[in-house]
Structure prediction request, 256 residues.
Amino acid sequence: MVFTNKKLWTFLACCLMAVGLSSCRAGHVAALPGQTFTCAFPAAIPVGVRQGVYHSVAPGETVWRIARMYEVDADIIKEINNIKDVTDLEIGKRLYIPDAARRKDVITLYPGRKWEYMIIHHSATGRGNSSEFNRAHLKRGWKGVGYHFIIDNGTCGKDDGQIETTPRWIKQADGAHCKAGGMNSKGIGICLVGNFSRDKVSPRQMDSLVYLVNRLRKFYRIPKKNIMGHGRVPGARTECPGATFPWKRFRARLDR
Prediction:
């Protein structure tokens, strides 16, 4: 791709703006078992505004998917970030996205009869995201992050309520989130970042959970009785997704 002088100056201006935006505070993140990590707090783009942003590649993300998130041409992302091989996108790599729109969630629905349940989890950590859970789960000997979807809480560079799609969903692979009842092979695993044994689900997380569950249950014709918390699966010995999870409010919103 060849940039005209006008495009080049626009790009350079966006870069200078993004440098200023990327100097946000960093915080220490609550550890997963045997692990500590540090993450940055995101700066959301106002509705109707376009500006340059940096995006940290999460597990399963592709240039195509990232381009759709920000409504930017995939070829522009490849050119600016000098991406030669789109099949080799490193997890954690920071990509510059010029003239980005406000990020939107990209939920792909795949035809099939595999999914009969949805299992809701919490991470039991104050902070985290798909990349951090992927790293922790690999250390446990799993094949990467065990859930199909992560709903973020505004930490580790992700927006509050952001829905991250993991490689297990993209590949339509079994989960590693609930052995009880054979749910790993027939249940969609959805994890909200947070510890809901003591904290509350944020309003944006709840909005995203309702949106995601409604899309999935209608497409796969999953009855509401098959949407349950990890701890409510017969044979599971856990209070996940936590004692404070608002089941009554959640189910009431599914009926609307």
About this structure: Residues 203-220 form the longest helix (18 residues). The domain at 117-254 is CATH 3.40.80.10 (Lysozyme-like).
